[in-house]
Design brief:
It is a single chain. The protein is mostly beta strands. Helices cover 0% and strands 49% of the residues. The strands form 2 sheets. Strands 2, 4, 5, 6, 9, 10 and 11 form a 7-stranded mixed beta sheet that branches. It has a 4-stranded antiparallel beta sheet with strand order 1-3-8-7, with no helix packed on it.
Length: 124
């Protein structure tokens, strides 16, 4: 069974940076696209970024383009989300997820394994 564990969440001031990590155990990691989603209080879970199994394709939500970078290390079964120039509206619980295939999709139902989430709080 696949397990995903996120880390790296913290409280930072606007303009700051954070690097989230997700470690995946079980399965053949490089076969699957990975994604990051986030959920703010009272809001639906939303797509942030995704990356294909061998990093050839990425996709980002428009609001994070140029500020967030998704990457992965298939030797270490990890996926990362580098976030710079953070804004208060980036405050949310961030979730790592594994696609059922290699689609680099933006819809939650395309992912069948999820981590427990890590809190990111950005203060103004």
């Amino acid at each position: 069974q696949v397990q995903l564990v996120e880390s790296g969440g913290a409280s930072v001031q606007a303009g700051g940076s954070l690097r989230l990590s997700c470690t995946v155990s079980g399965g053949v990691f490089e076969k699957y696209a990975m994604g990051w989603f986030r959920q703010a209080p009272g809001k639906e879970r939303e797509f942030v970024a995704a990356i294909s199994g061998r990093s050839s394709r990425t996709q980002y939500q428009d609001s994070v383009k140029g500020r967030f970078t998704i990457s992965r290390n298939n030797n270490k079964n990890t996926v990362h989300l580098q976030m710079v120039n953070l804004k208060p509206e980036d405050t949310a619980v961030y979730y790592c997820a594994q696609d059922v295939g290699n689609r680099v999709g933006s819809l939650p139902h395309m992912y069948d394994a999820w981590g427990q989430g890590t809190q990111v709080t950005v203060s103004s």
